[in-house]
Amino acid sequence: MSMKQLVFRNLKQNIQHYYLYVFALMFASALYFAFVTLQYDPSLDAIKGGVKGAAAVRTGAVLLIVIVAIFLLYANTLFIQRRGHEIALLQLIGMTKRNIFLMLAAENAILYYGTLIIGISMGFAASKLLMMILFKIIDIPVKASLSFSGRALVQTLIVFSVINVFMMGMNRLFLKKQTIVSLFRTTSTTEAKHVSVWNMVVGMAGIVLIGSGYGVSMKLFSSDWKSVQGLFMAMAFILGAVIIGTYLFFKGTISFLFHLWRKRKGGYLSIDDVLSMSSLMFRIKSNALLLTIITTVSAIAIGLISLSYISYYSAEQAAQNYVAADFAFTDKKDAARFTAALRSHDIRYRETMIDVIEAPTDISMILDIADQSRLQFQPSAAALSVISDTSTGRIDVKPGEAVLTGYQDILRQFLPFKETGTIRLKANGRMVPLHYLGMKKDYYVNYHFTHGMPTVVVDQTMFARLQKETDPQMKKVHIGIHLTDETNIERADQLFQRMKFSSIADSRLIMSRYQKQTFGLIMFVVTFLGLAFLVTSGCILYFKQMGAGEEERPNYTILRKLGFTENDFFTGIRQKQLFYFGVPLLLGLSHSYFAVRSGWFFFGTELWTPMLTVMAIYTVCYSLFGMLAVRYDKQLLREAL
Amino acid sequence: MMILEATNIRKIYGTKKNQQEVLKGIDLRVEKGEFLAIMGPSGSGKTTLLNVLSSIDRVSEGAIFIEGNNIVAMKDRELAEFRKRHVGFIFQEYHLLDTLTVKENVLLPLSITKTPKREAEKKFAELASELGIIDIQNHYPSEISGGQKQRAAAARAFIHEPSIIFADEPTGALDSKSASDLLHKLRKLNQQRKTTIIMVTHDPVAASFSSRVIFIKDGQLYTQLYKGTETQQQFFQAIMQTQGVLGGVRS
After folding, report:
1. Which of A46, B62, B65, B126 has CB 3.0 to 4.6 Å from B9, enough for a Cys bridge?
2. Where are the bilayer-spanning segments (chain B) (predicted)?
3. Residues A221, A227, A233, A239, Cα dihedral to 10°
4. In the prediction, which pLDDT does A185 show?
């Protein structure tokens, strides 16, 4: 048989075995090519200016290639190790290492570039789809038209060729290091040695580290570490504690728990235990690093996607908080011109006018912060907007009382307020004490007035008094235009955009679009990166399980000879894969939950719906790989006898 | 009492055009409690015979009854069930699971029959002291010697009190001391428990521990020797003589 024939024979074998590798490579190259195509596409310039679209996509592409490179190199080492026997045999019959290397390189080149070309053509088809999805997400009515980009092709080929060179280098090194004897030797030494006190200590340390990381994350943005340096230290601690804790958890905690469980069994194991627990214990320690990486990668992916989805999901709500009506004006003449335009186009509306006064307010007594000296503003004389209770139409405040309204979640983390207390309003050079009744969520005036701080609502008589005494410069007005029929919003917005206003005027629709554009693009990039994370980590686990299954094949044969049927195995195999895929996932979900919880309020107004949606979708996609692994094991079993 | 009865068993490998008949009509009857050795040159079909008798492989023709059950007519599932309860195995390569300790390996056949734990413990204690594996019961196979592994495998074969044990070259990978040690123990268990043992071997010394030796040549029964009242030494001489006549290569 000539070398050429040998190469093709091997290829035929490999494609059957490594279809998932081929799939992953195809997926990665398609994704990368699509990203690069987007990057070079002129139609993306439309959103480049405002949200730096190209930069976001480029960053995404770089991150993507890092993930893909690590994945491919890792998969490559797994594969070459599995072919140890074959390589040894070829050396035995007189092939030189150089020849074998050339054979491997030729095989790999065909497989690699063949897949790459398919991947790129799929990527080109997909880039149009991606573009359409992107435009849909960020709500831009541009036709997605794409031309094939030669630059993108060249860049993709170069990047993947560099990775291929690295892979070849690794193979060369592997061949150089290994002797024939070492290649023939099956490496099946037990790791499930006997439980020690050390094991227990490591296990406990893992749990303690993860727990303390979670604990610190819970109050990351509370008042405990206000300085930037302290915050940074806390973040570094959380990251380190959780990652090291995860590693120790896999290295110590799990094997310790297994040992306890196994000891209790007293040597009397059921077939399910044999297939799941003892098999897992056999490899869990050497897999600790891998499982830690998978867990961390999953946590990062879920966390980032959740946060970006929270931003996107909250865009509408954020726009409502910023603009307290469909259209908001700060000048009566501007408002009058706009309403005239609305009337001439038969668009019905309701107008609210709220007088706003900016008055220094002493809120130091209701702030739930012990040390107020580090705050960025003077809590005893905070410049807050004051409005009257009648102008809200909903809140009723008695004389001598006040409520605050318009309070964002992000504020709660930095400025926690007490339930009740006393605030003091400056009126006529004197601080007037008012009984503070609590905090409401609604927004009545624009963010231009509030700057993210809550608004004070007081009784009408008190407000009238303040108004009389206040310098006219400090008197402002908020005019809100609410459309009676929301379906007219597009038409009204077009009118709004065509007009020029003398002072600040806002459209909620424009604000919402702006928010969606910003966060939509980020979400788009992050989601596709997350997808790459998901696919690569799923594939790596699957490959690893393939190898483990291969090693267990003789065990299956023994069990089959002893009289166990295929059906006796299924529960055990499912348990094993459930554990192997499930534990990193669960831990990843838990990590990402705490990560998202610690800082989600920076990103939006809604936590649960977007986070749970992301988690559910991630879990489903990830589970597919677990199912593939179970299927592979079943096939092994069937062939075992 | 007859425990195993095989009549006219044939095993043919290969396609229709290129057939190779490995077993050419063998008749065999084994009494309960017998220690039977099967000998023969390489390629004579002795391992194939053991495989079909033990239901791991299927015959092409013929009938095999074990304790009155016709295993040729059984479906795969029934066969597996049958092996679980009535058959024990000892292999040349031990075939212990690397992932389990010695004790866990030995107790494996009991878990499938749902034997109560206390009873299992008792059976293990008896057998382990008999075979001298008490001290290594919590070791993994990679931590013990070949002889110890094979004794552990023997314990696994005996633990569920099967009516018949099949051993394929059990001493093939052992040094002479471990081998004779194992064979002494097998013979003792055979006599104490009245468990039938069918052992394939090419080693006349190993065969001399049995109560009867059958010789296979080219897929057919060549001859057989009964130990009867002979000493082991005399029996060994007789086996050597027959093996000499049998030879390996057709002249």
Report:
1. B62
2. none
3. 20
4. 64
Task: Please indicate whether, in this complex, the C-beta atoms of B104 and A194 are within 8 angstroms of each other.
Answer: no
Rounded (10°) angle between helices A150-177 and A97-137:
140
Q: Hey, are the CB atoms on B108 and A555 less than 8 Å from each other?
A: no
Tokens standing for A117?
Answer: 């070309």
Task: Convert the pLDDT of each residue in B190-218 to its tens digit.
Answer: 999 899 999 999 899 999 999 999 999 88
The pLDDT tens digits of the residues spanning A269-317 come to: 888 888 888 878 777 777 888 888 889 889 988 998 998 888 888 887 7
Beta strands A401-405 and A430-440: pairing type?
A: parallel
- Using a 10 angstrom Cβ sphere, with 0-12 exposed, 13-18 middle and 19 or more buried, the burial of residue A54 is middle
Is this prediction's ipTM beyond 0.95?
no
Which residue, A326, A347, A316, A351, is CA-closest to A508? Answer: A326
Q: How far is CA A454 from CA A179, A411, A465, A471, in A?
A: 73, 9, 21, 22
Q: What residue segments make up the domains of chain A, in order of their start?
A: 1-187, 349-483
Q: Would you call A568 and B112 a contact, using CB atoms and an 8 Å cutoff? A: yes
Q: Pick from A192, A557, A563: which is nearest to B140 by CB?
A: A192
Inter-residue contact B118 to B157 (CB < 8 Å): no
Q: What is the pLDDT of residues A229-279, one digit of tens each?
A: 777 788 888 888 998 999 988 888 887 888 888 888 877 888 888 888 887
Residue B232's identity, in one-letter code, is: Q
Q: Is A521 helix (H, G, I), strand (E, B) or coil?
A: helix
Give the 3-state secondary structure of residue A604: coil
Do A476 and A354 touch, CB atoms closer than 8 A? no
Every domain of chain B and the residues it spans:
2-246
User: CB of B99 within 8 A of CB of A192?
Assistant: yes
DSSP SS3 for A138: coil
DSSP annotation of A197 reads H
Which chain B residues are closer than 8 Å to A196 by Cβ? none
3-class DSSP state for residue B88?
strand
Do the beta carbons of residue B30 and residue B193 sit within 8 Å? no
At residue A564, what are phi and psi to the nearest 5 degrees?
A: -80, 140
In the 3-class helix/strand/coil scheme, how is A440-466 assigned residue by residue?
Answer: ECCCCCCHHHHCCCCEEEECHHHHHHH
CA distance A374 to A28: 49
Query: Residue A561 and residue B117: Cβ atoms within 8 Å?
Result: no
Report CB contact under 8 Å: B98, A282. Answer: yes
**Tens digit of each residue's pLDDT (9 = 90 or more) over A318-340:** 777 777 788 888 888 888 888 88
Cα distance between residue A417 and residue A456, in whole Å: 13
Inter-residue contact A439 to A403 (CB < 8 Å): yes
* Nearby residues of B166 by Cβ (< 8 Å), 6 or more positions away: B50, B53, B54, B87, B88, B89, B90, B198, B199
Write down the pTM of the prediction. Answer: 0.77
Helices (H), ranges, A83-196? 84-92, 97-137, 150-177, 180-184
**Are A539 and A78 in contact, with CB atoms under 8 Å apart?**
no
CB B92 within 8 A of CB B169: yes
List the single residue in A188, A271, A555 with the smallest CB-CB distance to B112.
A271
Topology annotation, domain B2-246 = Rossmann fold (3.40.50)
Burial class (CB in 10 A: 0-12, 13-18, 19+), A149: buried
Report the residue of A561, A576, A637, A641 to disrupt the B interface, i.e. the one with the largest count of B CBs within 10 Å. A561
Given this model, what pLDDT does residue B65 score?
Answer: 92
